[in-house]
Write a structure and sequence with these properties.
The chain is mainly alpha-helical and 74 residues long. It is 58% helix and 0% strand. The protein has helices at 3-13, 18-25, 29-36, 44-53, 58-63. α2 packs across α3 and α2 packs across α4. The chain is globular, with a radius of gyration of 13 Å.
Length: 74
């Protein structure tokens, strides 16, 4: 799973900027950016703080399918 892509998709779906999410979660704006670019993997604790600020549960985060489905029309 691409944690960074998942986080960015959910954050934008909820209408949050990186800055707003960072402020709500108590982590730095650069940390949010680095996670979304897959430059760092967040610790479980950091990810929990970020997800609580969205708000979304850890289970929901990892099971929510945000990838667009390929629809084939014949």
């Amino acid at each position: 799973m691409d944690v960074g892509k998942q986080l960015k998709t959910i954050r934008t779906m909820r209408g949050l900027s990186q800055r707003e999410l960072a402020k709500r979660s108590g982590v730095t704006n650069s940390m949010i950016s680095q996670i979304e670019q897959n430059l760092v993997n967040p610790s479980v604790g950091s990810l929990k703080k970020i997800l609580d600020a969205i708000p979304i549960s850890m289970g929901e985060f990892f099971t929510l399918d945000v990838e667009p489905k390929d629809d084939y029309l014949f």
